[in-house]
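User: Hello! I'm new to structural biology and keep hearing that structure can be predicted from sequence alone. Could you demonstrate with Pentatricopeptide repeat-containing protein? Please show me the input and the output so I can see what each looks like.

Assistant: Of course. The first part below is the input, the amino acid sequence of Pentatricopeptide repeat-containing protein. The second part is the output, the predicted structure written as tokens.
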Amino acid sequence: MIDEEKLMPNSITFVGIFSACNHRGLVDKDRKYFETMVNDYNIKPVLQHYGCLIDLPARNGQIDEALDIVSNMPIKPDAVIWRSLLDACRKNNMGLERRKELARQIMESDGDSYSGVYVFLSRVYASANRWDEVGLIRKLMTDKGVTKEPGCSTIEINGVVHEFFAGDTSHAQTKEIYQQLDDVEERLKFVGHVPDSSQAPMVDDLDDEKGHSLRLHNEILAIAFGLLNSKQGIPICIFKNLRVCNDCHNVTKLISRVFNVDIIVRDCIRFHHFRNGSCSCKDYW
């Protein structure tokens, strides 16, 4: 269309093109358009362009190719690029040693101040039930002064915004919310859901994390509150400041089917519309 209309694309135009390829999983087209941008339009790539170029092969399991791009790019990677690599590594179920190696490479590449790599390592060890190492990672974060942005989900009911954090017990309806969560957990177990401990948020009580409790996830708390207070037939709408993890994504799909409710979640990446056990993102985000 750009060629047909004789329009001159700019840097932002190609960010949109790369993002579209990213959401559709079009690896080859993404590379082609990147080369077109550089060679045909003489546009100098910026971090946003490299972020898309790295994220797409990483999501498709091509971690080594993504790392090659990182090592050859003339710009210092930012936290978004590191997060793309870590999320992709987790989503592709790579082995423990491969994930530890990726974390080591990120730290050596001046990414050790990025809290995500520590959270990632913590979850790697949690998934292997190596809780002593989880504790050591958290101590290392404290010693280095590395902090993690706390996950937070909000929901509006009758004009009032309600805010939830992991393991939150501050809400006026806390008792009812956790009773609702008990019901959710039982009904999800009945349809075969097994929580993923590697996706649990970093909280102070490791025993809770080992318990695989859904209540550690702030968006699930918000959804439970929505189930209690939303009118039948009205979608539950959640806003989350971080990216939705795999386990929460799977849980929310199941809740939409088991409870016959539409759930809309806006995370830091995109909108997710859950209905009857599936998501509008087609499990690609």
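User: So the tokens describe the shape?

Assistant: Right, they're a compact way of writing down the 3D structure. Reading them back into a model, for example: Residues 174-190 form the longest helix (17 residues).
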